TrEMBL record:
Name of the featured protein: Putative N-acetylmannosamine-6-phosphate 2-epimerase
PANTHER family for the chain: N-ACETYLMANNOSAMINE-6-PHOSPHATE 2-EPIMERASE-RELATED (PTHR36204:SF1)
Organism from which the protein derives: Eubacterium plexicaudatum ASF492
Catalytic activity line of the entry: an N-acyl-D-glucosamine 6-phosphate = an N-acyl-D-mannosamine 6-phosphate
Lineage of the organism: Bacteria, Bacillati, Bacillota, Clostridia, Eubacteriales
Pathway: Amino-sugar metabolism; N-acetylneuraminate degradation; D-fructose 6-phosphate from N-acetylneuraminate: step 3/5
Amino acid sequence: MNQKVMQMKGKLIVSCQALPAEPLHSSFIMGRMALAAKEGGASGIRANTKEDIREIRSQVDLPIIGIVKRDYEDCSVYITPTMKEVEELMEVGPEIIALDATGRLRPNGVELKDFFSDLKEKYPEQLWMADCSTVEEALYADSLGFDFIGTTMVGYTPQSEGLHIEEDDFSILRQIISESKHPVIAEGNIDTPAKAKRVIELGAFCVVVGSIITRPQLITRSFSKVLEP
């Protein structure tokens, strides 16, 4: 693991993303969002698309977890689902590339193990993060050789419906950490400083926080909702 990635250990990674339908959708804005995150103490950035990553690189010298979110017909996997998205990310060289590592099939019915095998063969020096939704998926990704195991998808898939990352003092995270050979990145619904601190105490390599920092429409909604009659 290179020195730049090791700078993330025990630290906060801020997810700077805005999809096309969101008001802050703009590579320029995401670059400034990343700069604001750095000024606030972030030690890394998670970002979507090569365009956003290129702009973020022009603003901050922080390690980046790169993804491409793209929808494919008849497929529910949307986080870096095919080699096309990986090749786009390789143009800008994020330190880590994250991809959906749930049990769902990828476009054209491709299984995770086959896709990951192709990735490792084509880009043997690249670091890979598995975005998982259950303990079983995480341990399977760990066995495949992902460099980092993430809890990103907990509660967002049919197989993890009703699960919450923070339940029972992060029991899902604790089990994954205790049984994985590779470092575990805590991500998903970690929306308070206390939760971020706790997951690091439990042994997470680092913690990724997104919407509660970088999506002002959702932050605003949490305030306005409590004032509704």
